[in-house]
Amino acid sequence: MTLLRVGLCPALSTDVLESLNKASIKTVLDFVCSDLEKLSQVCSVSYKVLVSIRRLLLAQYSSYPVNGTDLYNDVMSVVAILPTGCSSLDELLDGGLYTSEVLEIAGGSGVGKTQLCTSIAASIAVSSEQNVNVLYIDTSGGFSCQRLQDMMVARNIPEKAMIAAFQRIQCTKVFDLFDVIQLLENTKQSIDSGSDTFYSALKVVVLDSVTAIVAPVIGGQQTEGHAMMMHLGRALKGLAAEYSIAVLLTNNLVQGSGGEKKPALGRTWLHVPHTRILVSCNKGDGDPSLVVATEQRHVKLIKSSRQPLNIVRMFKIGDQGAYS
Q1: For the purposes of burial, counting CB atoms within 10 Å of the CB of 310, is it exposed (0-12), middle (13-18) or buried (19 or more)?
Q2: CA–CA distance, 209 with 275 (Å, rounded to integer)
Q3: What would the DSSP string read from start to end of 75-89?
């Protein structure tokens, strides 16, 4: 809290300061919150002098209101939208992956979460319009370089472009929560140092999956495990916000009340992802028109700040990865 002192503004002389202190006005906050008319009578100081002092103090110590349009433009000037390579998924996500945000893909075992992450990584890496790098953190052993190559071959990607795309994807296998947190800290340090060209162009971090490393430490009364889970959440959101990186993570489903499936890790984790989508092989919400085949999936938007919730779109997972 800033104390009033001589020189803080031209009208705040020694005599005025002594008069204000005698009236128990000692800080900037005390002064700006006081009734100037009463203060003028108590301190025997001119009302115009007090008004001029307040005006200067407010200009120096108050924050200025920001127009909503200007604020939006400022945010969007540092936010990039990275298409996923699947038009229906991009439509659901209002364009694709947003840098500075965390997107969570929730779904049951074997539904294709890793396939979807691999497909998105491939699409971003091979895009001629986006010279960005992808860090893929594999915590379950599901990532396959051969599968990544097969997707690119199925998309008829030229060999030269394929080689360049592989150079823009770096996969790290980590199976411990503490090691993942340390990896994220090391990633921040590598970006800050600027010594590694890969991290200088890093714009996407994939964590597949968060459940594999968090679930073992939060069972029963393990309060430290919950603290570590929240530490991981803060690290992911901090990485996204501070370095304008799109964070993509996968989460499993657990049995909820009434037998309904829901994303794992509970309410505590709910605030971490900015956007959450639910991938399923089942019919969507009892709609008989959403009949799915072997390759087909339906995806529902269950958390978002931009789009209406419960929007459902269809996509397929084939040799080339995710497509509409």
Answers
A1: exposed
A2: 16
A3: HHHS--EE--S-HHH
| C-alpha 67: how far from chain center | 23
- Is the pTM of the predicted complex or chain greater than 0.85? no
Would you say 185 and 231 are in contact if contact means Cβ atoms under 8 Å apart?
A: no
pLDDT of residue 129: 63
Residues linked to residue 134 through DSSP beta bridges, in sequence order: 169, 204
Q: Residue 53 and residue 48: Cα distance in Å, rounded?
A: 9
Q: Rounded to an integer, what distance in angstroms lies between the CA atom of residue 214 and that of residue 230?
A: 10
How many CA atoms lie less than 13 Å away from 274 in the CB half-sphere? 20
| Phi, psi (degrees; rounded to nearest 5) at 128 | -75, -20
What ranges in the chain are assigned the alpha helix state H?
14-22, 28-32, 36-43, 47-61, 68-77, 87-92, 113-126, 145-154, 159-167, 177-193, 197-200, 210-214, 223-243, 266-270
pLDDT digits 0-9 by tens, 238-297: 999 999 999 999 999 998 877 788 999 888 899 999 999 999 985 444 343 444 445 789
CA distance 276 to 106: 7
pLDDT at 287: 42
CB of 128 within 8 A of CB of 83?
A: no
